[in-house]
Every structure is written in C-alpha cells, then in structure tokens.
Amino acid sequence: MAYASCHYIFFIVSIFPFCVLPQNDVAVAMGSILTANESSIPWLSSSGDFAFGFQHLQENDMFLLSVWYDKIPDKTVAWYADSPSNPVPRGSTVKLEAQTGLVLRDPRGQVLWRPHGINAGEVNHGLMNNSGNFILMASNYTWLWETFRFATDTILPLQKLLYDSVLNSTQSETNFSQGRFYLRFLNDGNLVLRLRSLPNSGTNNDTEYYNSQTSDPLNSSDSAYQVIFNSNGSLYMLKRNNQTIQLGPLSIPPASENYYRATLDFDGVFTYYSHPKTFTGNSSWTILWAVPKDICADMDAAQGTGACGSNNICSLVDRKPICQCLKGYSLLDPNDKYGSCMPNPCLEEPKKPKDRETVLLVQSVFLGGSLFLNLLFIGVGFQVIYQKRRSKFHLKNDVVEKNLCCFSYKELAEATNDFKEELGRGSFGIVYKGYIKMNSRNKIVAVKKLDRVTQDSEKEFLAEVNTIGQTNHKYLVRLLGLCYENQHRLLVYEYMPNGTLASFLFCNPRPSWDVRTSIAIGIARGLVYLHEECTSQIIHCDIKPQNILLDDYFSARISDFGLAKLLLINQSQTLTNIRGTKGYVAPEWFRNSQITAKVDVYSFGVLLLEIISCRRSVMDVEIGDGGKAILTDWVWDCFEQERLDCLVENDLDALEDKMKLVRFVMIGIWCIQEDPSLRPTMRKVSHVLEGIVDVMVPPCPSLVRYTS
Ligand SMILES: *[C@@H]1O[C@H](CO)[C@@H](O)[C@H](O)[C@H]1NC(C)=O
Ligand SMILES: *[C@@H]1O[C@H](CO)[C@@H](O)[C@H](O)[C@H]1NC(C)=O
Ligand SMILES: *[C@@H]1O[C@H](CO)[C@@H](O)[C@H](O)[C@H]1NC(C)=O
Ligand SMILES: *[C@@H]1O[C@H](CO)[C@@H](O)[C@H](O)[C@H]1NC(C)=O
Ligand SMILES: *[C@@H]1O[C@H](CO)[C@@H](O)[C@H](O)[C@H]1NC(C)=O
Ligand SMILES: *[C@@H]1O[C@H](CO)[C@@H](O)[C@H](O)[C@H]1NC(C)=O
Ligand SMILES: *[C@@H]1O[C@H](CO)[C@@H](O)[C@H](O)[C@H]1NC(C)=O
Ligand SMILES: *[C@@H]1O[C@H](CO)[C@@H](O)[C@H](O)[C@H]1NC(C)=O
Ligand SMILES: *[C@@H]1O[C@H](CO)[C@@H](O)[C@H](O)[C@H]1NC(C)=O
Ligand SMILES: *[C@@H]1O[C@H](CO)[C@@H](O)[C@H](O)[C@H]1NC(C)=O
C-alpha cells in the first residue's frame, strides 16, 4: 500500500515533565515521495487534523503543494509552496531527499521548487506537526525549516509574526497566484495592510489602507515587536515592555473544540476565522474579527477606487467587500469579480427607474386629474414655492451654517499634502485633492483655493459661501466646508471620482447616448434648482463641460456655482468684467444689457449641443472641417437641412432614438437664441428633455446670419 511505503512510525518521547506518555508523531522518512494525482495520500499529522501534500484544484485540474485542514469538508489551505510554478500539473512529485531536503518536480523531473536555506545532508526526516506546521528536522531534532517561518496568506495558533514578516493575498479563493494585497509587520512595530502598486507603475506607490498604530517612535520599548497567535486562539501584539495589544477577537470559542486561523483574504481583509472541530451536516468558517473595519470606505479614502476596480461599486457584507459593476457596465475580466468594469457599448443602458416614476407622477397628476384638482395642485405648488422663498436664509453676523465645516489653513495644507496633487484649474483658482477625517471617516475631498476673490469683506464672503452651503441637490457638487483666514479663501467640496464632463465627452469612443442624455437631464435639473428652487437664486455664469463633474455613477454634478457672485458686487447690474468662457457666453454679456438666468440657459444650450454631437463648441479652425468650426452654426445647418444624422455620425443608439434626438436638438436651438427673451426657462428645458412637454420648431438662433 502506497501509504505504508511512504511512512514509518516514529516515536518522540515527550519532554513534558508531568506527561511521560510518548506522543505519536508521524515522521516522514527520507526517500518518501508523493505523486500529484487523485489517489495521492498526503502526509498527515498524528491527530489527522492537518495534511501535507498535493491538493487537487478541480477548476483547472492542477495540484497545489500545500498544508491543509484535512478533517473538514472545505480542506482549507493553510500554507502553500510560494512559487510561480505552483500549482503543478498531474504527475508532478514531491520527495524528501537526503541531499536537498524537500524537492518539487514536474512530471519530467525538472525541479520546480525547494525550500531555501537547507544544507546538503542535514535533513533527517520530515514531520507534519499537529499544530499545522510542516517541519524538516536534523537528526538531533533541530528544526531546519518549517512552514510556520514561511507563512503565505495564513497564520495559525502557535505561529508568530516577527519584524518584516509578510503575508501575501492570493488572486482569488481558488487561484493561488499572488494577489493585490499584502500584510507586513514593519520593524517600527506597526502592522500594515497595503495594496500593491501595479508592477509597471515604476516606483513603490503601495497604498496603505490599514495601520495598527502600534509604534511609538520615541520609545522603542513601547512599540510592538511580535504578533503572537497563542494556542488558545488569542491574537495579539507584544511590546518589549511585555505589555500586550489585543488584535483578534476578545471572545473566542474553546480551543479544544475549534480550529482558528487568521488569513489575509484575497479581497484584502485580514480575517480571523473559527471552525468547529466536530460538527454535523454543513459547517463552515465563522468570521470572528477582521481589519480594516470597512474596506470599502477605508480603501476609498486611501486610493480613490476602493477595494474593487474602477466602475465597480464596493459594498460591505459580513465585513467583506462585494463588488458590483455599475449599471450598464461589465467586468473587464469576467473571472475577476473584483477587477475593473467597462461600459457595455452595444447594450442599451437601463433607465433609472426613479426618474421615470417622477415623470409618470407629474404626467398622471396633470393629465389624470380634473380641472379643479389641477388648479388645486398648481395652487399648492405656488404656496410651497412662496413659503420656500419666504424662509430665505438670513446670515447672523459671521456665523457659518451648521452644515459647513470650518477648517484652518494649516489643516487644509496638511490634508492636501501642501497642495501637492492638482485636480484642475478653473477660473476661480486651482483645485487640489485632499484627505480629511469627517465624522471619523476618511474622506477624499477637492480643495479649491480661490485666488481672485475681490470681496475682501469677510462678512460678504461668508454670506455667499453660506448660500452655496445651503444648496443640496442630487445634481450639484456639495460644498462641505471652507477656510477664511487672513488672505486665504478656500472651499472644500466632495470629491468626484470620474472627472469632468469635458474629459468624458470628447473621448473616443463616444460615451453611450443614454448616459449622455441622462447627464443632460441632470444638468438641466441642477440648473432649475439653482434658478428657482434654492433659497436665493443662483446664476451660474460659467456653464461649460469643464464645470460639470461626474460622480461614482456617472451622474452629472454642477460645480463652481455661486462663485461668480464672489467676484462681482451686484450680478444683476451691468458688468464691467465679462464672466464665462468663450464659446459658451451668451451674447448679452457683450451688449452691456442686463444679466439674468437666461445666460445660463444659453450656455446650457451650447453644452447640450456638445453632449448630442460629442464635439467641442469651438474647434481649431485648422482642424475643423468646412462649416463645422462653430458648433452652433453647424447644428443649425444640419437641422435646417434635416440631416440630424450628421450630428451623431454613426451613433446607432441616438439614430434609433430619433424622437428624443429631434427634441434635444430643437430645445438646444431654443436655448441658444440670441434674444434672451426667446430662450425658455431651465424648467421648461428640463421638461422638454424629460419628454413631459412638447417643443415647437425653433427659429434661426442668430438675428444676423453669416454664411461661411
Ligand atoms: C497516482 O500515482 C501513483 C504513483 O505514481 C500511481 O501508482 C497511481 O496509479 C496514480 N493513480 C492514478 C489514478 O493515476
Ligand atoms: C509541534 O509544534 C509545537 C508548536 O510549535 C511544538 O510545541 C511541538 O513540540 C511540535 N511537535 C513536535 C513533535 O515537534
Ligand atoms: C543539530 O544539527 C544541525 C544540523 O546538522 C546543526 O546545525 C546544529 O548545530 C545541531 N544542533 C545541536 C544542538 O547539536
Ligand atoms: C510576497 O510577495 C512579494 C512580492 O512578490 C515577494 O517578494 C515575497 O517573497 C512574498 N512573500 C511571501 C511570504 O510569499
Ligand atoms: C490566476 O491568476 C493569474 C493572475 O491573474 C492568472 O495569470 C492565471 O491564469 C490564473 N490562473 C488560473 C488557473 O485561472
Ligand atoms: C508615485 O508616487 C510619487 C510620489 O508621490 C509620484 O511622484 C509618482 O507620480 C507616483 N507614481 C505613480 C505611478 O503613481
Ligand atoms: C518607555 O516606555 C516604558 C514603558 O512603556 C517606560 O517605562 C519608560 O520610562 C519609557 N522610556 C522613556 C525614555 O520614555
Ligand atoms: C489558555 O487558557 C488556559 C485556560 O484559560 C490558561 O490556563 C492558559 O494559560 C492559556 N494559555 C495561554 C498560552 O494563554
Ligand atoms: C518580559 O518577559 C520576559 C519573559 O517573561 C522576561 O524575561 C523579561 O524580563 C520581561 N521584560 C520586561 C521589560 O519586563
Ligand atoms: C449542505 O450544503 C449543500 C450545498 O451547499 C446543500 O445542498 C445542503 O442542503 C446542505 N445541508 C445542510 C444540512 O445544510
């Protein structure tokens, strides 16, 4: 029998003074060999709890040289030979040899792996210890090599982590290739979890998402120097002054009846598990403790994309991250659920049900109700608007709104690492990325350093910022806080991970029609709010794709609103200084006529035409082909000649959605009418975009038409 030929029984007299009974330990004799196939019988520990040998990986019919829990159905791996060639093909062998100790060979006899640091002829026998440690021993019983000293992703009771010990995560539960995360016990006493930077990213930019904070830089005797996992299952850190710091769970089920392990799981969570030794029916590992507490939030703050790849949304279930692609996106690598997701270019994206419900509600109220009810409804509507207007915010001296945080300049300098990482430059100043602790959570923020604030009165600055601070809308970038200190004026906004609409819109391939149209509707709704629904009207004055940001869900968020006023004394009066950006500014800016919310309608119209056509409003004359250099003129030409297909080129989704395309183009042309009084309000625009009301055929936008 293969089993007998590979083993012989070896007795070691126990050294415990009160226990004179010899303990049976199954030594593995020199010359013992295992072959990787289903009938391969592993080298077991005397209790049978642990096995060393080839574990069959069903998925790809390979074999993993490993140590595993042999008495549980999962056969959970506790250690594996850390070699790129592991797992190995059927027919590979592992042999205990006098010359080399232990050798893993492929079926042709090529050496694939062997333990480091063993001198020829030293090894006398091997031993699968009952604690899960596979040991190579000298004839004098000195331990020459042990799996406990070369931990892979798991530590077990009686195993220690010393300075510079590393656990590497695996690629997945079944793929034992090296994964993205590692745990390291730094020699300053901190235990850290990090995300490995991509190999081609050059320098070591690993992102830390957990730190045990157990280092005292001023007093090394007060710093942790060992991580101990004791036989009772206690996982803690030991300081040189013999104080301990609890790491694992406080309450642990009895050691006699349970297995324990702490594994850096493939999802980046360092997890403490227990499993009953005896059980009936199905039993599995129970999570007793894990760090970080919320990997989705902590990774997000540290890295920006979270424990999941880009466009892959992270949520926490039973302390573990679950990743779910954004709607309309699918996994880049279908086997890597935690990887990045890509948009499905050919599939129709599902509509957001919520938006649809509102549309239906409004429609049914207006269409379904009696005349009396409609009047009543409108009456109530006016009442609500009136009430809202009356409750206009009054600033009490220089009190800052409760929902805004006040930061010191020093805090913001620290948060942004001295204004190091620039996110963008706008007309009001430079925006930097920063990390701030708010409500005991790390949050990524965008810090805008205003460089052209002419209003030096602190009171007026605060009044304006408070107005912005009170805005809270789904399609606006939220202001979180501010800093006003000496000459410094800074605003802290929530961070938008998907950048600006400009970078999203003008790239190849063009974003899908449905995403584009819902972005347009979002911007329109945000402007309705600014113009009509917030406590005091806010005219944006600089609507352009660079000022529209995209949130996690690629939903539009208007930024920089309310800032125009910080630079001007009285917006509704004639301006000396033209605000806005070439290509988007309404003609009345040049005419010294009154500035109203209609300037935003104009800019929105240009933006809408850009969203439809994925073209910039003004192109380089050299690059722009005949007649297309000025987007608004070109759109009008296409519209007049009934060639809307030119606008969207071969965008099949848009061409098939002809009704919506026509509606969008027509309302866009209404918005860019030179005469402000002809332009609709943003509310009307929003209703047309949403399909609630119809739109008439627009006239030519220019009063005087130049033909090229
Ligand atoms: C497994 O390998 C052993 C040793 O080489 C061999 O005797 C046995 O026939 C193999 N079993 C199968 C099912 O291939
Ligand atoms: C098994 O490992 C434990 C813990 O390291 C140790 O105390 C024990 O002596 C080992 N058994 C043998 C037979 O070496
Ligand atoms: C035990 O044997 C090893 C290897 O032969 C040797 O390095 C070591 O010094 C020996 N230890 C003792 C205590 O004899
Ligand atoms: C962990 O991964 C690093 C980087 O690939 C490697 O150098 C190290 O040997 C690995 N450590 C373990 C214990 O597997
Ligand atoms: C395991 O993951 C690595 C890295 O992603 C990949 O190259 C390899 O093909 C995977 N192995 C299997 C069996 O899927
Ligand atoms: C790595 O970090 C350095 C310093 O923070 C930075 O200059 C560099 O751009 C980073 N590299 C990558 C690839 O992120
Ligand atoms: C370092 O810490 C230990 C114990 O925490 C304390 O007894 C000792 O006085 C400290 N030494 C210094 C220099 O602070
Ligand atoms: C384990 O628990 C037992 C009973 O509570 C206790 O006597 C023993 O000292 C503990 N062992 C360790 C290493 O903490
Ligand atoms: C810590 O404990 C060890 C073993 O019990 C002892 O030898 C050592 O003196 C202790 N150190 C301190 C600083 O108390
Ligand atoms: C055990 O698990 C299997 C598969 O997950 C399931 O089909 C079966 O019903 C479970 N049995 C019990 C007793 O829970």
From TrEMBL:
ATP binds at residue 449. The chain crosses the membrane at residues 360-386. Belongs to the protein kinase superfamily. Ser/Thr protein kinase family. GO terms for cellular component: membrane. Residues 25-149 form the Bulb-type lectin domain. One of its GO terms (molecular function) is ATP binding. Residues 1-22 form the signal peptide. It comes from Cinchona calisaya. This is Receptor-like serine/threonine-protein kinase. Its EC number is 2.7.11.1. It is found in: Membrane. InterPro entries: Bulb-type_lectin_dom (IPR001480), Bulb-type_lectin_dom_sf (IPR036426), G-type_lectin_kinases/EP1-like (IPR051343), Kinase-like_dom_sf (IPR011009), Prot_kinase_dom (IPR000719), Protein_kinase_ATP_BS (IPR017441), S_locus_glycoprot_dom (IPR000858), Ser/Thr_kinase_AS (IPR008271).
